[in-house]
Amino acid sequence: MDDVPDRIEHTVLGPTTQWADVEAVLETAADYGMRACIPPCYVARAARWNEGRADGAAVSLATVVDFPHGQGATEARCGAAKVAWADGAAELDVVVNLGRLRAGEDRRVQEDLEELVASVPVPVKLIVEAPLLDDAALHRVGELAAAADVAYLKTATGFADGGATVDAVEILAEYLPVKASGGIGSWERANAMFDAGAERIGASSGDVIVREWREQRG
How many structural domains comprise the chain? Predict the structure, then answer.
């Protein structure tokens, strides 16, 4: 596996995140060859940061939409997605409406996702908050996301109890590529997710993961 850095999204999404925090994540992502996932309010500035780099080492930017609860109106979610894309985001991580999913409102969930995907010309990843779902619900949301042309399934926001698990990744990978996120702070943990079928890793410790991966390669 030679492309690990490009499969890591170095992340900073805490409620007290400042531009200095984002800039540090971007610098580290550029140094290690990783992607970055940052709050939407900083995407435009991060895009300008990319343009201003003398070495041309631009960082691929992802951001979140309706994060972390996913309970916004569809029109508002689509509007936020359009703004993030216009600001320079290359990918969007959107939270599923978990209440509607758990209530069995599958049609409304799918329609919401279809409108979101259609609203922007960039990949949409769906954050399913797997720690709060049983296996049957994970299969349902996988089916709904695939039917709506979502690009990736993402395990968790990191703001609910629990994070990525091998079992959840294995289930979700039956439907779409998976971004494993939540509680992944080492290469050992990241590698377990890759082995389970994950294509990407989202982590605030992306630099640790890449360093440990390089060390074990010798």
Answer: 1
Phi, psi of 186 (to 5 degrees): -145, 160
Q: List Cα–Cα distances, 174 to 43, 147, 170, 192, 195, in angstroms.
A: 32, 13, 7, 17, 14
pLDDT digits (tens, 9 = 90+) for 11-54: 999 999 999 999 999 999 999 999 999 999 999 999 999 998 87
Contact residues for 104 (Cβ-Cβ < 8 A; gap 6+): none
Question: Does residue 185 sit in helix, strand or coil?
Answer: coil
- Catalytically annotated residue among 66, 87, 112, 154: 154
DSSP tag of 216: H
Q: How many residues does the chain have?
A: 218
- Active-site position among 112, 125, 179, 207: 179
Q: Is 82 among the catalytic positions? A: no
Q: Which residue has the tokens 């320079």?
A: 88
| 118: amino acid identity, one letter | A
Range of the domain at 171: 5-217
Residue in 93, 112, 125, 207 annotated catalytic: 93
The one-letter amino acid at 56:
G
| Dihedral sign of CA atoms 207, 210, 216, 218 in order | negative
pTM assigned to the model: 0.96
| CATH number, position 166 | 3.20.20.70
